[in-house]
Amino acid sequence: MDKIIGINEVVQHFKDGMTVLYGGFMGVGTPAGLVKCLLDSGACKLTLVGNDTAFPDTGVGPLIVKKRVGKLVTSHIGTNPETGRQMIAGELEVELVPQGSLAERVRCGGAGLGGVLTPTGVGTIVEEGKTKLCFDGKEYLVERPIRGDIALIKARKADRSGNLVYERAARNFNPLMALAADLVVVEADELVDVGELDPECIVTPGVVVHKIVVTGGL
Amino acid sequence: MDKIIGINEVVQHFKDGMTVLYGGFMGVGTPAGLVKCLLDSGACKLTLVGNDTAFPDTGVGPLIVKKRVGKLVTSHIGTNPETGRQMIAGELEVELVPQGSLAERVRCGGAGLGGVLTPTGVGTIVEEGKTKLCFDGKEYLVERPIRGDIALIKARKADRSGNLVYERAARNFNPLMALAADLVVVEADELVDVGELDPECIVTPGVVVHKIVVTGGL
Amino acid sequence: MSAKPMDPKHIIAARVARELHDGDVVNLGIGLPTLVPNHLPPDIRITLQSENGFLGLAPLEGDPVPGLVNAGGQPCGMQAGGVFFDSAMSFVLIRGGHVDVTVLGALQVDQQGNLANWMVPGKMVPGMGGAMDLVTGARHVIVAMEHCTKDGGAKILKQCNLPLTAKSRVNKIVTELAVFRIDPGHGGLVLEELQAGISLDQVRRCTEAEFRISPDCQL
Amino acid sequence: MSAKPMDPKHIIAARVARELHDGDVVNLGIGLPTLVPNHLPPDIRITLQSENGFLGLAPLEGDPVPGLVNAGGQPCGMQAGGVFFDSAMSFVLIRGGHVDVTVLGALQVDQQGNLANWMVPGKMVPGMGGAMDLVTGARHVIVAMEHCTKDGGAKILKQCNLPLTAKSRVNKIVTELAVFRIDPGHGGLVLEELQAGISLDQVRRCTEAEFRISPDCQL
């Protein structure tokens, strides 16, 4: 059950039309090596789910620029002009989701929950097509779960069993995405032996991680 | 804004009829000093919300035994025979909630969410009185938020700003309760200076903590 | 670590152990299910999830460690590579399908895969604890119990009459007499195996539920 | 740390700073709001929340630190006592009322307290990012913006016509001309203060919304 693989072994897991969850916020915390590998795989018509599309040359930006994405579920596209251009030209389907609702939807996907009730978006166009419930005079939108076929995760350190810790604000969506996909692939800066990470400080438990690529020295 | 108080200053915050959230699992992770203080305060008709009622002489057990509790929201009462006796005698109102749903309900209370949709309890008596939604052929119960007037939290270490770390499995419900009450009171084994706790490993951010009692040496 | 071959509990635990696969994440209920790890062959390594908030539950070795207790509140140990988390995360793992197998006892189980194990109205109401989430969320639900009540009454029924823990979620029943699987969707109990020295007749006498017999079942 | 007194942005930021209290947890939007901390008196210490996942945002000092960036993705610093967490926790804090104040810009704001700041249909659609959650969840919502558009058009309207960020959630509007509060429930904008050297007339000319004048407003 060795989870450690070479970067070349990742490519076989990418397929046209798959739903890809990715960590990162403005590219910080997005696994650059795995994104490059996905790009090199030639897979297209992807559905991407993540906080933003970073900049044209960082994070998942290049996947947008090279037109590998058919649908995007995200909270912010303002820093990558190509995303907005493709959206307005009708080349790319974009679902904009409030950032907190996106986090909860992915969390639900990983948690076996059927959704959450949030006040965010009530009275705005985010309501459209969503079930609305009212309790104690307050309205909520039902935000439904999101899951992916694969999650691309960037970690600071992984142990050999897949336990992960992150690096400062590069944590962001990574721990959520790591719970919500059928295949969880991690790019780690550093690999350590099982037992080296403090059990109180591990953020993502190894039991949810399937494959680890180490970019730093082994 | 000094949050450090003596144990004698806690008593003024207890009032008859208030809703008290408490951390702990079978008493492990329940702040014994704060519970004793609540007991000594004489406050009664309390609503308690926590995982279980531990044993008659541990955790919140003594509050039950001394009949200070009017209502209890919990997942398990099997280890404290007095809880079951009072419930069956009609002296104590008990709402039994599946443990995972209890965790999510308290989380919702702290997260500004109006509830979650869970498959847990569908087809059981837990359904009673709850809104049921069906999506993609699967049924879910809407589990609604829980908040408290006060939360009693047990931490391993606190820094002076209220950042908290816990001790192994004594973490359990504590971080959830600490987000869901108007007044959050912590009993910490040890107080450290701001900056001593690793920002990657802090579980509860100090901004949600109001008062800290230190039981170990200062 | 000694298995007493004649004790029904150990017969059951040993048989449940054969249902587990290397790498499985497993949550074990209180009592009988906790005996299962003693019966695992050395090449099958599992990770135990403890619903009070950690992965890597292990037997206590040496003195108790502060805060390190199992879901019964008893001191325990932890494997290298274990992880602590809060109760919400614990049930994210349980409900979210990250626990491969849960093994728990039952008051009643029926041929639709319904399970009742948390209350006897008016008598015994311990509460469901984490059981409802475990049975709802774990990928594979194994009921491990003695075949009959202390009084010899049937526990494997046509239909549970005690309040349910979850509906149609049980995949397998292991007793000291037999092993059944429940065909999901098809409803219906299938006898897969008789324990050593047990006759089909014995099983029929102790089982209220109707069951088919698997072609693979050695009678 | 230098405040240029004649720059509208700094006039606005300085006035917003006076709305903050010692101990406040504050989330600042991109642009103008980030100038606010420069104008805080030394006895007012606030904690900045950064929606990408931490508390204790501080200006960059020295070289960038790996992974330490603000919500614009730019390198920043961190106060002692800061805490990192994931995006779900970040918005638990935001939506759950644990952020005392959010300060953000607006394309439009109206006399019902509606805010529009995330898209111009067919033209500019950056997305809402965290703004909808911030405006919905923060205890106190301050819009900090220049009073008019670049073309001199009104931004404080009777009713927003751009897609809303949130409904009836704005508590205060601070511009280089004036300070308004919005009475929750009562609907209705109240002029609380004119900036130094600004006349009521000037404010009326630049404001489409109807507003009352607070008895405390010095004209």
TrEMBL record, chains A, B:
Write out the GO MF terms.
CoA-transferase activity
Q: Which residues form the signal peptide?
A: none
Q: Which domain of life is it from?
A: Bacteria
What SUPFAM superfamilies does UniProt report for this protein, alphabetically? NagB/RpiA/CoA transferase-like (SSF100950)
Key words of the record: Transferase
Matching SMART domains, A to Z? CoA_trans
Check the record and name the Pfam families matching this protein: CoA_trans (PF01144)
Q: Which Gene3D superfamilies match?
A: Glutaconate Coenzyme A-transferase
InterPro entries, A to Z = 3-oxoacid_CoA-transf_A, CoA_trans_fam_I, NagB/RpiA_transferase-like
Task: Give a yes or no for keyword Transferase in this entry.
Answer: yes
- Protein name from the UniProt record: Acetate CoA/acetoacetate CoA-transferase alpha subunit
UniProtKB/TrEMBL annotation, chains C, D:
Pfam families tied to this protein = CoA_trans (PF01144)
One MF term in the entry's GO annotations: CoA-transferase activity
- Record's superkingdom? Bacteria
SUPFAM superfamilies linked? NagB/RpiA/CoA transferase-like
Q: Which PANTHER family match?
A: KETOACID-COENZYME A TRANSFERASE (PTHR13707), SUCCINYL-COA:3-KETOACID COENZYME A TRANSFERASE SUBUNIT B-RELATED (PTHR13707:SF57)
Lineage of origin:
Bacteria, Pseudomonadati, Pseudomonadota, Betaproteobacteria, Rhodocyclales
In terms of SMART domains, this protein maps to: CoA_trans
State the NCBIfam families in the record.
pcaJ_scoB_fam (TIGR02428)
Keywords for the protein's UniProt record, in alphabetical order = Transferase
In the UniProt record, does the keyword Transferase occur?
yes
What family does the Swiss-Prot or TrEMBL record give for this protein?
Answer: Belongs to the 3-oxoacid CoA-transferase subunit B family.
PROSITE patterns recorded: COA_TRANSF_2
What name has this protein been given in UniProt?
Acetate CoA/acetoacetate CoA-transferase beta subunit
